[in-house]
Write a structure and sequence with these properties.
The complex is a heterodimer of chains A (about 120) and B (about 270). Chain A has about 120 residues and is of the alpha+beta class. Chain A is built from two helices and nine strands; from the N terminus they run ααβββββββββ. A five-stranded mixed β-sheet of chain A has the order 3-9-8-5-6, with no helix packed on it. A four-stranded mixed β-sheet of chain A has the order 2-1-4-7, with no helix packed on it. The longest helix of chain A has 13 residues, at about 15-25. Chain A is globular, with a radius of gyration of 16 Å. Chain B is built from nine helices and no strands. With about 270 residues, chain B is mainly α. Chain B has helices at about 1-30, 35-50, 55-65, 65-95, 100-135, 135-165, 165-195, 215-225, 235-265. Classes of the chains: A alpha+beta (about 120), B mainly alpha (about 270). The interface of A and B includes residues 16, 80, 93 and 94 of A.
């Protein structure tokens, strides 16, 4: 379903969709944003190290293959998103300066650790 | 178990500080705490519903539903706190000038319900996922109880601390807390909007994590209380400052209004 079809289907949300479109139009072509997939299996991130180019916006697609929920969290990236068991979530990051940005799973902080390496 | 303590404490801290400030200041304005039970019930019921339906909510707006709903909740709470800071300033200037009692109650109920809803949903997901699904109920419950206990103790400390002050001091201190926690909610909403690519993500202006790391206990408390961010961007700082400015304007208006009422009575 495209955004315009959805806004016809749900007239009550039309204003919010319009707001969304207006905002995303200002932030450039979403289609060109590179995508990186991270999987959560047995409370671990795969891959645990994600390499992305500097000064580029990247769309992280986080797939939680466990039955339990996990929260993708990073103090350095200022990101926090709950991903329910057997579902996926999108998190935009960047543009970032070169460096390392650790992230972790808040519900399994000791095992679920990873980092985004910007180079 | 330690992670359960930390997870629950992190989630309850913000809500407990906010609710205890509302309780202490509403009492100081002469309102009884009748608004509290319905607000708590709505907050817990809302948390349960938000947690249960988080997956379909997340899938709204092309997978950005969680960010958008969080941002709307945070900004609504922030707006309620701006209005409340004005009411507190008015009442501190001249008793009984905070407008109709229903207005005060509406603000208290809104802020309490929304803050419980957002934080409570995460606790529900954690407890259900790890206590029930993964079968670690004993350690989740033990850790969660300790975490909630620490949070509630800090809240009790704040409540009695504010109540120990004179009426005026309690109201001004509460107005300051409302202003700062409101700005903290605005700051958090910027993370959600950036995460959804609705606000531009920019280079940080500075990095103060050497002084206070966001992951340290002091950093966590500062983040809940004043929206501390070690690596703020210009957009974040601008919106944070705008929120503080709005609260200051609300307080000034409240003060002017109450001053006029006092003159008329005199």
């Amino acid at each position: 379903m495209t955004r315009s079809e959805r806004s016809r289907a749900e007239p009550g949300r039309r204003w919010l969709v319009a707001l969304l479109l207006a905002c995303s139009a200002g932030s450039g072509a979403v289609a060109q944003t590179p995508e990186v997939e991270i999987q959560i299996r047995e409370h671990l991130f795969y891959p645990a190290e994600v390499r992305i180019p500097a000064n580029t916006k990247v769309k992280l697609v986080i797939r939680n293959l466990d039955a339990t929920p996990e929260e993708f969290e990073s103090y350095e990236l200022n990101r926090e998103k709950v991903i329910v068991g057997n579902s996926q979530g999108i998190v935009f990051i960047g543009p970032l300066a070169p460096g390392e940005y650790p992230f972790f799973g808040e519900f399994n902080p000791r095992t679920a650790q990873g980092k985004v390496i910007v180079e | 178990m330690i992670s359960a303590v930390i997870i629950v404490l992190r989630e309850v801290l913000e809500g407990v500080l906010l609710i205890c400030m509302l309780m202490a200041s509403a009492c100081a304005m002469g309102h009884r705490l009748r608004w509290l039970p319905p607000a708590l019930i709505m907050g817990f019921a809302g948390a349960l519903a938000y947690g249960l339906f988080l997956e379909p909510i997340s899938m709204l707006f092309d997978g950005l539903g969680q960010e958008i709903s969080s941002a709307v909740i945070l900004l609504t709470t922030a707006l309620a706190l701006v209005v409340y800071s004005g009411m507190l300033a008015a009442n501190a200037t001249h008793a009984g000038s905070s407008g109709p009692a229903s207005g005060v109650l509406l603000v208290c109920v809104t802020a309490t319900t929304l803050s419980l809803l957002r934080e409570g949903a995460e606790i529900y997901l954690y407890v259900y996922g790890y206590g029930v699904q993964a079968g670690q109920m004993a350690s989740v419950l033990a850790g969660g109880t300790i975490g909630a206990g620490i949070g509630l103790s800090l809240g009790t400390f704040l409540y009695y601390g504010l109540r120990a002050l004179s009426r005026k001091a309690c109201l001004w201190a509460s107005a300051a807390i409302a202003m700062m926690t409101g700005a903290a909610q605005v700051m958090q909403s910027t993370y959600n909007l950036e995460q959804a690519d609705l606000l531009p993500s920019m280079q940080a202006l500075w990095d103060s994590s050497v002084l206070v790391a966001e992951s340290s206990p002091a950093g966590e408390i500062l983040q809940a209380a004043i929206g501390y961010e070690a690596t703020p961007t210009a957009v974040q700082l601008g919106l944070y400052a705008a929120s503080l400015l709005l609260s200051l304007m609300a307080m000034l208006l409240g003060r002017l209004y109450a001053g006029k009422r006092r003159e008329r009575k005199a």
